[in-house]
Amino acid sequence: MDKFTIKDMNLYYGKFHALKGVNLNMPKNQITAFIGPSGCGKSTLLKSLNRMNDLVEGCKITGDIRLDGEDIYGNIDINILRKRVGMVFQKANPFPMSVYDNIAYGPRTHGIKSKAKLDEIVESSLKDAAIWDELKDRLKKSALGLSGGQQQRLCIARALAVKPEVLLMDEATSALDPISTGKIEELCLKLKNQYTIIMVTHNMQQALRIADNTAFFLLGKMIEYGNTDQIFSNPREKETEEYITGRFG
Ligand SMILES: Nc1ncnc2c1ncn2[C@@H]1O[C@H](COP(=O)(O)OP(=O)(O)O)[C@@H](O)[C@H]1O
Ligand SMILES: [Mg+2]
């Protein structure tokens, strides 16, 4: 079943045509990766999925993007959309507060006040993000004192705390060492049983290791989309082949 469907989507930043006629369906409980050279529109497309581009002045989107069949640019409550579709960025961005308060922040803004309930959410979110054991004795300590890899898993835990259905990850491991990257990749493979994951990665090996489906973009166009193994072993398009064999980008 498809979680997200994108039909004939175009995006303009003012006069600049940043995404051109994109058609793409992303299945539920799978990992879909967006790859392609810098500036081809990967982040732009990802941000369109929870309407982060609404914040960009002059940004215009045409076409049709649906979440579980519902038009996300129609009559939808944006706060509910962003709760359903969470996001993790390239640079870990913990709030300058304790580990506990980082995780409890979202649930609190959604009205959860009970300490017992918040305790439970903090524990289960940190467990889901595979970082409970490392942090359970430092819940009251500042999140800014954690290592980069721990901060990024904390941000994943924070995203999970509001019980999203989809997790968008924009080059979420590109600032991390190989061990932290490996932990987050393992985590994604575990999380996809419960969530749908859509990730931008600059690292083709990462797409190959964990993504079920891969979409290749070039200059605002989606050139090719398919099963990850097929894209990397037997690309249909010449541009895809040139990119994956390292001839550009
Ligand atoms: N807020 C913005 N305003 C104007 N142009 C933008 C904005 N964000 C991105 N762009 C342009 O859109 C294109 C795609 O950018 P982006 O989605 O960030 O690419 P990628 O993530 O693939 O590197 C680039 O040419 C970039 O300069
Ligand atoms: Mg980007």
What does this structure look like?
With about 250 residues, the chain is α/β, with parallel strands linked by helices. The protein has one domain (about 1-245): P-loop containing nucleotide triphosphate hydrolases (Rossmann fold). Helices cover about 35% and strands about 25% of the residues. It is built from 10 helices and 10 strands. The chain has helices at about 40-50, 80-85, 100-110, 115-130, 130-135, 150-160, 180-190, 205-210, 230-235, 240-245, and strands at about 1-15, 15-25, 30-35, 60-65, 70, 85-90, 165-170, 195-200, 215-220, 220-225. The protein has a 6-stranded mixed β-sheet, sandwiched between helices. Helix 3 packs across helix 4, helix 4 (about 115-130) crosses helix 6 (about 150-160) and helix 6 packs parallel to helix 7. The longest helix is centred in the middle third of the chain and has 14 residues, at about 115-130. The mean pLDDT is about 95. Adenosine-5'-diphosphate binds near residues 36 and 39.
Q: Give the CATH superfamily.
A: P-loop containing nucleotide triphosphate hydrolases
Largest sheet strand order: 6-7-8-3-9-10
Query: What overall form do the CA principal axes indicate?
Result: globular
Mean pLDDT: 96
For the secondary structure, the number of strands is: 10
Helix content, binned percent: 25-40%
Tally of individual domains: 1
Question: Order of helices and strands, N to C?
Answer: EEEHEEHEHHHHEHEHEEHH
Features:
249 residues, alpha/beta, Rossmann fold, four-stranded antiparallel sheet, 10 helices, 36% helix, binds adenosine-5'-diphosphate, binds magnesium ion
